[in-house]
Design goal:
The complex is a heterotrimer.
Chain A (H helix, E strand, L loop, with lengths): L1 H32 L17 H8 L1 H34 L5 H13 L2 H15 L5 H26 L3 H8 L4 H30 L2 H6 L6 H10 L5 H27 L1
Helix pairs in contact in A: 1-11, 2-11, 3-6, 3-8, 3-10, 4-6, 6-8, 7-8, 8-11
Chain B lengths: L1 H38 L3 E2 L4 E2 L5 H6 L9 H33 L4 H13 L2 H12 L4 H9 L13 H25 L3 H9 L4 H29 L3 H6 L8 H8 L6 H29 L1 H5 L6
Antiparallel strand pairs in B: 1-2
Helix pairs in contact in B: 3-7, 3-9, 4-7, 5-7, 7-9, 8-9, 9-12, 11-12
Chain C lengths: L3 E12 L2 E12 L3 E5 L6 H9 L6 E6 L2 E2 L10 E4 L11 H11 L4 H14 L15 H13 L5 E5 L7 H18 L2 E6 L2 H7 L2 E6 L2 E6 L1 H6 L4 H6 L4 E4 L1 E3 L7 E4 L4 E4 L10 E6 L5 E3 L8 E10 L3 E8 L4 E7 L11 E5 L6 E4 L4
Parallel strand pairs in C: 3-8, 3-9, 6-7, 7-8
Antiparallel strand pairs in C: 1-2, 1-4, 4-5, 9-10, 11-15, 12-13, 13-14, 15-21, 16-20, 17-18, 17-20, 18-19
Helix pairs in contact in C: 2-3, 2-4, 3-4
The chains are: A mainly alpha, B mainly alpha, C alpha+beta.
Chain lengths: 261, 302, 360
């Protein structure tokens, strides 16, 4: 009896760790091979070198696109924060007609395939006279990043004791004071965490960007182009750097999340 | 009168807070979708779009194609692919989520983090990684050569439906894992103890308690995997072969690119949109139907 | 005796189609501890929130010291609330929580420190001043919530079931210290609870609320001794109801209450009552039981149950009419009664009260 239970547990553990390996192996491969001196990614590795990092840093188009992506991510995250936080606050604090619908609409760009949002925006922007450009990309990113920002802040607001807003008013604070002295300090970490995730997502976004960028190239679009024209280990190097950045961002936001609870 | 003033003021404040976000969403999200819808009934001329209502684009969708199969056949092929990805991601996610929820005691939180991290790892990095692993000169082949299992590189790993499915499964598994784990996490330990107490063995407890309660999470996760893989045009173009690289989203992409027939692309987009929204509606209903746990928990009343 | 601090005039409030407070009138005296007692959904919390300014009445007016406060938003009303959930600000320390109201009113630094110190001392929070609320026990959090309101010296302190989350022992302790504090500061308090014992311990007066109305307003002793309605009788203490009709004496002898099986003498003050009154309320502790038939009136019955409750034992008597009578007798080592005994129940006619049944 005992041995049978532990045997089935052992099988389960084996499956679980195989899945985990499946999830991580490709990532580990890319990281490892970014240090491989060869042009071809073959097994076994042929020593250790930072050659591809050097090549990557000398690739002006790639570095320019990195700059573009950081700019887009910073601006879009700021816009999504400025729009999403008040929206979450209003959703939590007030009852108004169409609230449920609004909540669903905000989430649409996250639920629907990116290509649909991309082509919808492309056709409409064309009519509005917004050309395929950085501006169009920023508008696109800001819109889908609201779908990250709003629910995260909304969830944190719901977790807060709703009567602390009333308590602040009761103790003489105006509505604005109540927000900045009482509500904001309690959702600050949630906002920061969501902003960090938004930034990471914006840096990685392709489907929407692809239809809106025109000649304005972002980092993932640039990498995608590089991978389509055959394999270059520069991609391993830049991917490893992005991975390191994302990992840091995730760990910080998780740590903040735990601290916030 | 005074009451009118105070309530009026609160309404004014609400409007001030809501307006920027709502205007933004209407202008940059809702109107674009409606515009896409009307676009799908228009016609393409040489350099402009003719604004004239007709159903030709939809008719075209079910008949002809410049390259390869008729688009609706591509759609069916894409749905088949999406089904495969959904099944694979669920088969991988469930045991892992179950293991973390019920078998791990120490470092549970850390392990869950570890599982979720790939969700935030660059999409392009994950898709590309399979290209260097599965390619003819790739790592898997050189590994097999090195082991002496094969003497010449195997070329069929990459550029096939299978490589697309593998890549997508890898990319979308964390999306499925999250809701499945959340559903399992919400099952109270005492329910499982109660089932054991009432004489249910492990299999019966699993079948009659754990699985039904995890079903809403499984449905959510499966829906994510299906919808996301259905609309993905990057993984097929990176990992797919001559025929398998053209999924329905790739046809849309072509209409807005090389083929330059936006109204037709819009029509296919609307077909996908309707399918996705329909699917979300159905799975949403199923989820609510199976959310027994929620309906029996006490609700808080104001 | 005292001037009126809060006056509620013909106030009505509904949420959608549900009427929550219904044409309610109430005056709270200065320095008085008044409790709104009633079951959940009776409108007591809504009434409190209207005084605080978080809800706005549909009809009627609310005055403090004779002036309507309806046009004043909650942050400028001279009332403070102790919330059911305490609503302490999680990111601020105990001291910062208490200082919040004074900071909002821009009280000068020195005066603020002095008043905060006084409030901390009053609530014995000296050793916890620098902690965050999450690091406090329920009772400690509750004291912070009270101190945070008191420090603003409000004209009226509103308390919304502030002890509801505490365990029984701590609750009794807090009741006593709250009452002591209120007496010392001469503060006007409006307190909301559904706990009858708490209401009796704390209050100068109790307003029993039911379905958006006040069923009875009076001192705890008044309501307990002479409940005006069956609801009031049942909500404050336990009682027995006997149904029957009132027979007025023509010649100055006792009025009588005629039930299906017996005639019960009534006190003389029932002349004031009208014919429609037809239910007799008698508290369980006023009934005495006898094995032999007493000389004056008695109801005959059979003991069907005896429960030991600690200080008292509760005996259930089944009357000939089929009605059950609950009787409380002081516990003793050996109970003089056993289940199955035939028994006679009697009481001092002055302790029984007629209640109009049309008020149910």
């Amino acid at each position: 009896m005992f041995s049978r239970i532990s045997f089935s547990n052992w099988i389960l553990a084996f499956i679980a760790f195989s899945v985990l390996a499946f999830l991580y192996l490709p990532i580990i491969v890319v990281v490892l091979y970014s240090f491989n001196p060869d042009t071809v990614n073959s097994f076994p590795m042929n020593g250790f070198s930072l050659k591809w990092y050097q090549v990557m840093f000398e690739n002006e188009a790639l570095i320019a696109s990195l700059g573009h992506s950081v700019a887009v991510a910073l601006i879009s995250t700021s816009i999504a924060t400025l729009l999403g936080v008040p929206l979450a606050f209003a959703m939590n604090r007030y009852a108004f007609p169409g609230k449920r619908l609004l909540e669903r609409v905000v989430l649409l760009p996250l639920i629907l395939p990116g290509i649909l949002t991309g082509i919808a925006m492309l056709t409409f922007f064309q009519m509005l006279g917004i050309p395929q450009s950085m501006l169009a990309v920023v508008i696109g990113h800001s819109t889908f990043l609201m779908a990250i920002m709003m629910p995260q802040v909304y969830a944190q607001l719901k977790r807060l004791d709703s009567s602390i807003q009333e308590a602040a008013l009761d103790l003489g604070a105006s509505g604005i004071q109540a927000f900045f002295y009482v509500i904001f300090p309690n959702i600050r970490t949630a906002i920061f965490g969501a902003a960090l995730l938004s930034f990471t997502l914006s840096l990685d976004e392709i489907p929407v960007t692809y239809f809106l960028n025109g000649v304005f190239s972002t980092l993932p679009i640039q990498i995608w182009g590089m991978t389509r024209n055959g394999i270059t280990p520069q991609v391993n190097a830049i991917s490893t750097l992005i991975f390191a950045f994302s990992l840091t961002a995730i760990l910080i936001s998780a740590w903040l999340g735990r601290k916030g609870e | 009168m005074r009451q009118g003033n105070r309530q009026g003021r609160s309404r004014f404040v609400l409007l001030g807070i809501l307006a920027p976000a709502v205007i933004w969403l209407v202008l940059f999200l809702i109107l674009p979708y409606f515009n896409l819808f009307s676009f799908s009934f228009w016609q393409n001329d040489v350099f402009t779009v003719r604004h004239e209502f007709n159903l030709l684009n939809y008719a075209k969708f079910f008949t002809e194609s410049q390259t390869g199969a008729a688009p609706y056949l591509v759609l069916l092929d894409t749905l088949k692919l999406a089904c495969w990805v959904t099944v694979c991601t669920l088969l991988l996610s469930f045991p892992l989520a179950y293991f973390i929820r019920f078998k791990v005691t120490r470092y549970k939180q850390a392990l869950y983090m570890l599982v979720i991290i790939p969700l935030w790892v660059s999409y392009i990095m994950r898709a590309y990684s399979w290209k260097i692993i599965l390619g003819t000169n790739g790592i898997l082949n050189s590994f097999l050569l090195w082991l002496g299992i094969v003497d010449t590189p195997v070329s069929f790993f990459l550029y096939s439906d299978v490589s697309v499915i593998i890549g997508m499964t890898h990319i979308y598994t964390p999306f499925v894992l999250m809701p499945v784990y959340t559903a399992l996490e919400q099952i109270p330990q005492n329910l499982i103890e109660a089932s054991n107490d009432l004489g249910g063995n492990r299999l019966r407890t699993f079948l009659h308690v754990v699985f039904p309660l995890a079903l809403p999470g499984i449905i959510t996760g499966g829906t994510y995997a299906f919808v996301l893989s259905m609309g993905d045009f990057l993984a097929p173009s990176l990992l797919g072969g001559p025929t398998s690289s053209t999924k329905i989203a790739n046809i849309v992409q072509q209409q807005f690119g090389t083929s330059n027939n936006w109204p037709y692309g819009a029509a296919i987009g609307i077909v996908i949109l309707v399918l996705v929204l329909g699917l979300l509606e159905v799975t949403g209903r199923l989820e609510r139907h199976f959310s027994k746990l929620e309906s029996t928990s006490p609700r808080t009343l104001r | 005796m005292n001037d009126i601090m809060v006056e509620i005039r013909n106030v009505s409030k509904s949420f959608g189609k549900t009427s929550v407070v219904n044409d309610l009138n109430l005056s709270v005296h200065s320095g008085e501890f008044l409790t709104l007692l009633g079951p959940s959904g009776c409108g007591k919390t809504t009434l409190l929130r209207m005084i605080a300014g978080f809800e706005y009445p549909d009809k009627g007016d609310i005055l403090i010291q004779g002036k309507s406060i309806l046009s004043i938003p909650p942050n400028r009303r001279e009332v403070n609330t102790v919330f059911q959930s305490y609503a302490l600000f999680p990111h601020l320390t105990v001291r910062e929580n208490i200082a919040f109201g004074l900071k909002m009113k821009k009280v000068p630094r020195e005066a603020m420190d002095r008043r905060v110190d006084a409030a901390i001392e009053l609530t014995q929070l000296e050793s916890l001043a620098l902690r965050k609320p999450a690091k406090l026990s329920g009772g400690q959090q509750q004291r912070v919530a009270i101190a945070r309101s008191l420090v603003n010296e409000p004209k009226v302190l509103l308390l919304d079931e502030p002890l509801g989350a505490l365990d029984l022992q701590l609750r009794r302790q807090m009741q006593i210290s709250l009452r002591r504090l209120q007496r010392r500061l001469g503060m006007t308090c409006v307190y909301v609870t559904h706990d009858q014992e708490e209401a009796m311990t704390l209050s100068d007066r109790i307003a029993i609320m039911n379905a958006g109305r006040i069923e009875q307003l009076g001192t705890p002793a008044e309501i307990y001794g002479t409940p005006a309605t069956p609801f009031a009788a049942r909500f404050l203490g336990d009682t027995n109801f006997l149904s029957g009709t009132l027979q007025r004496a023509a010649d100055g002898t006792m009025n009588r209450f005629i039930t299906a099986t017996s005639e019960i003498p009534l006190p003389t003050n029932v002349e004031l009552l009208k014919e429609k009154y037809q239910s007799l309320s008698i508290r369980p502790e006023y009934i005495s039981l006898h094995h032999e038939k007493p000389t004056d009136f008695a109801l005959q019955g059979k003991i069907i149950e005896e429960n030991f409750l600690g200080l008292f034992s509760r005996i259930t008597v089944s009357l000939a009419s089929g009605e059950h009578l609950f009787v409380l007798i002081p516990s003793s080592a050996k109970s003089p009664y056993t289940v199955g005994d035939n028994i006679f129940a009697t009481w001092d006619p002055a302790q029984a009260h007629l209640i109009g049944m049309d008020n149910i």
